[in-house]
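go over both lines:
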Amino acid sequence: MFFRSIFDEDGPKVADTFYEYLFKQNNPTMGDKFQPDITHASRALHLAITKLRSEGVPFIHWVPFIHMWR
C-alpha cells in the first residue's frame, strides 16, 4: 500500500481552517474554558480540504488528509 505524506505548504493552510472552525463551534456549556468542540472535527476537515481544493491544489496534495473516528 502506498501512503503519501502531506506537502509542507498545505499543512498550515489546512490546520488554520480546521482549528478556526473548531474554535468557532465552541460549546458555551464548557464553562470558562475556551476549548475546540471536537465533535465537529470531520466537518472542520471537510471545510479545510474544500478550501484547499478551491485554491486549485492538485489531488495528490489534498488526498492524504483523512478523518479517522474511533
